[in-house]
Amino acid sequence: MTTSDSSNKPLDGRVFVITGAGRGLGASYAKEAALMGAKIVVNDIGKTLQGESTGETPAEEVVREIIAAGGEAIADTHDITDYDGAQALVEAAVKRFGSMDVLINNAGILRDRMFANMSIEEWDDVIRVHLRGHFCTSRHAAAYWKDKAKEQGSPVDAALIQTTSIAGLHGQPGQANYATAKCGIAMLAHITHMELFERYGVRSYAIAPSARTRLTLNSPGAVEVVNKKMPNGFDYFDPDNVAPFVLWLGMRGCPAPSGAVFGVEGDVVRRYNSWQIGSTVNNNSKRWTFDDLQAAGPELFKGQDRAFSPMSEVIKQF
Predict the structure, then answer these.
(1) pTM value?
(2) CB neighbour list of residue 86: distance below 8 Å, 6 or more residues apart
(3) Topology annotation, domain 15-275
(4) Which long-range contacts does 194-201 make (Cβ < 8 Å, 24+ apart)?
(5) What is the pLDDT along the chain (318 residues), one digit of tens a residue?
(6) Catalytic residue set
(7) Which of 135, 140, 141, 183 is deepest in the core (most CB within 10 A)?
(8) Which positions ≥6 away from 205 have C-beta within 8 Å?
């Protein structure tokens, strides 16, 4: 665990629910948030990246570490892809700590395969854990915050933080299932912003973290990068580097605009723009012909070669 000034508790009293928090980034979020005064529900089902049971209880291990450092936390092993289990996770936070202020959806798995060889099971498993898993927990959190806002007659100060990825924002060969799910999660964050922020005060974000985790150590093209350090010794891909920004999003009154998507790694934060129109052509109130389209092509496609940065180019920036 990293250390924080005991006199400065910017998350004092905030209740965080963090999925996939038994290891890697989720564990880093949980332990750092606890040091900052938050109360934590550490959710982790205890499975491998391939979705197989390990027989371990990583959530309980993280909780023991938090409590030993003077923090407050409970372990939860509900399956986030189970609709009722996700509801039980939210209810566990409210029952134990009296409320829930921040949900960080972090849990995920990998089933990498080139698309022409991918099985339906590999597709369904990844979509289920990422997209369905983010939906189930977010759906019950949203209902809780909606009811709370109506009950108190004023907006809540809550944050819903989804985890997309640079694979989902830039693409990555061999990860059609994973990248598709992560791309969908970025849009989910935008839609929940549109539905929840103005009405109920719930800020909604998506983050694309890059760090040394089980996922990146098993991702094509990433493993050679994430173990490197900067010339001054700075461990650029240490998961603890990502935690402060993510937790800042969950702080009371965080000024980061709701609906935003951020890339976070090392000492770098990037703000992504959502889908934008790159160019427009029209045919002067006439139906298009093939000849018209051929003629308009150069204008329609100009700049396309610069419009999309592949994941490999983002990684090369390091």
Answers:
(1) 0.90
(2) 78, 80, 133, 136, 137, 139, 140
(3) Rossmann fold (3.40.50)
(4) 194/259, 195/142, 196/142, 196/145, 196/146, 196/160, 197/258, 197/259, 199/146, 199/149, 200/145, 200/146, 200/149, 200/155, 200/156, 200/158, 201/145, 201/149, 201/154, 201/155, 201/156, 201/157, 201/158
(5) 554 444 579 999 999 999 999 999 999 999 999 999 999 999 999 865 555 566 668 999 999 999 999 999 999 999 999 999 999 999 999 999 999 999 999 999 999 999 999 999 999 999 999 999 999 999 999 999 999 999 999 999 999 999 999 999 999 899 999 999 999 999 999 999 999 999 999 999 999 998 887 666 665 556 666 777 888 989 999 999 999 999 999 999 999 999 999 999 999 999 999 888 989 999 999 999 999 999 999 999 987 765 556 655 555 555
(6) 165, 178, 182
(7) 141
(8) 159, 160, 161, 162, 189, 249, 256, 258, 259, 260, 261, 262
Do strands 158-163 and 202-210 pair parallel, antiparallel, or not at all (unpaired)? parallel
Contacts of 306 (CB under 8 A, 6+ apart): none
Q: How far apart are CA 228 and CA 217, in angstroms?
A: 12
Would you say 149 and 99 are in contact if contact means Cβ atoms under 8 Å apart?
no
Interatomic CA distance for residues 318 and 141, integer angstroms: 36
**Total Cβ atoms within 10 A of residue 309:** 14
Amino acid at 165: S
